[in-house]
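---------- Forwarded message ----------

FYI, see the Putative phosphoribosylamidoimidazole-succinocarboxamide synthase record below. Original note from H. follows.
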Amino acid sequence: KEAHRQLFKAGQTSLCSTFTRSCSKVADYSMASGLRLGNKVIEGKTKVVYELPNEPGNVVLVSKDRITAGDGARAHDLQGKAAISNATAASIFTLLNNAGIKTHFVRKQDDKSFVARNCAMVPIEWVTRRIATGSFLKRNPGVNEGYRFSPPKLETFFKDDANHDPQWSTEQLIAAKLQCGGTTIGAEEVQIMLRTTRTVFEILERAWASLNCSLIDMKVEYGVDLQTGEILLADIIDSDSWRLWPSGDKRLMVD
């Protein structure tokens, strides 16, 4: 019994210590960013999202100095990752907003965060491919690496780490009738996301081409604005979202 009491006490101490560190980090960020933070909406592998009581309908996405791989099975801290991810996302969303794409991005707040519309995320990854490479070749034996898709090929994957994000057809997605923020994802919503995904890829493909870099493939996600019900390009778009070949040469690709 005494041993059990000691273990319980140690567990309580550890839990309190973790909670205290977490509260301290939130307080430090709140003071540094100048934002009054509300409840935590969600915390993922590479970011945490908070409500903003002074900005109804908006949230703040705070990036972490963390990289992941293998559906989150491997993760490592990487100093400076948050600032790079946040700067990239802010630049990309600003470019897309200016091009007329409806996104959740409102403004860059500081080096590690940006303010966005509060959305219920659609649990689907939308992947656009210009060149056949990577996982596509494993799933489609017989296709030669380097095969060029024209128009770009679109694929959808249901977000489920435990089952390695299974690929879904458009018909499966419509049939699933996913409920997101009070909206049923049906044929109309799917078509909006399909058209937007293709347009986003073409905009960014041209942007990267101006820097002598080929956009090979990329993934994006969408959310439903909890106030307006609109489908918005959401989440974070950064260097983990795409594959780039400088000068169109795979050998020059860097992680």
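H. also flagged this: The chain has two domains: 39-117, 120-252.
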